[in-house]
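Section: Multi-chain targets

For targets with more than one molecule, the full set of components is provided together so that the structure can be written out for the assembly as a whole rather than chain by chain. Components appear in the order listed by the source. The example entry contains three components.
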Amino acid sequence: MIPLQLVAITLVGLGGLAVVTTRDPLRQVLVLGLYGLALAVLFVVFQAPDVAISELVVSSVAAPFIFLAALAKLRGRRRE
Amino acid sequence: MSFLPYALAAWLFFVGLYGIVTSRHFVHLVICLGVTQSSTYVLLLAIGYRTGKKAPIFTSGVPVKVGAVDPVVQALTLTDIVVGVTVAALLLALVIEIWKRAGTVDPDELRRNRT
Amino acid sequence: MSRTARLALFAGSGLVLAALLVWGLTGLPAFGDFQGEYGWILNDVAGSERHVTNVVSAIVFDYRGFDTLGEEFILFAAVMAVALLLREARDERERPRDEVRSEAVRAVGLSLVGPTVVLGLFVIAHGYLTPGGGFQGGIPTAAGLLLIYAAGRYRAYRAASPQWLLDAAEGVGVAAIVAVGIAALLAGGLFLENVVDLGTKGTLASSGTIAILNTATGLAVTAAVVLLCHEFIEEVMYPE
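Its structure, encoded as tokens over all components, is:
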């Protein structure tokens, strides 16, 4: 195992813990983005560039957009 | 030491599961489910890795006989990441519906309101 | 069930599950020492058999194309379900006004639309040559279209991605994969068999049906992401 893999594994392990223990969903979306970035790095050092690109575009574009839009909706007025 | 990537997969699985069990907000729950899901990506790619081998991309100049890491697990993983985000969107749509009907996104409060 | 009872149940069942998981994981090949024959063989033959340089794309769209068809159906079903749930009787007569007043946000946002879409199309188009493909490239392409909305041009965003076009693109993208499969049957091959001329390896005109399925997937993913994000945008814009 090369040192870079050790670093990436540590980052992802801590990142996963950080995502789960962040209880405020709005902050959690930001932490999730960083976690996705760490996962993409891990996939690169596992020699899987296709998967890394997939993770990168999902966690930096699609997931934040959808989660933030849903949270914006949940903050709005509600039909009684 | 060579067990570490598998331990990471197990760790992510249980951390995500813990988040789901203790969640007080449905959006938080959906994100924790994503962490659990990502443990399967780590597990698959860790299995398919071969020490010293490169990615399965053979552009001109790379002799095929060098070999590469396992491409099958990568194909499995990359489609699931993209499909996974659309399924997360479906779960969020259900969360919005729950919120419209019950007025809460807390699983515990939802149960109290029902009884 | 109270929170403490739930945690106790999780601790108990989690321990059993963890024991099973560790037992299973110790039976796996050591990290970096995987000897799966299927992957070895595909790495050796995909280049000459399918004229591709990215073996992963060849597996996604050819060797395991049938599995990808299943994934596409999940994608399609998820998008349809979101539309069914959220696209209810929304009163869309009152068009929302553009709320972004900052010229800087508009200028930067709109100037990024072109490069983002081109990047997405580039990633899709080179899927069977370099890392990338329909699944990965579809998301930046969709992001480019959504940037028009983010830059505060709601009307321009709707003009660039009208509802009928998105619905049609999503349907056509998924249906094209089934159509390619059936066409292969009609040509005397197996379902989704690569029956088209394979072209020159290493160029865009290569890999036969992989290129077609890759493009169809790019279309389906682009439309899916824009459709999903659009439903959520509409939910935010029209409060209950």
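Residues 3-75 of chain A form one domain.
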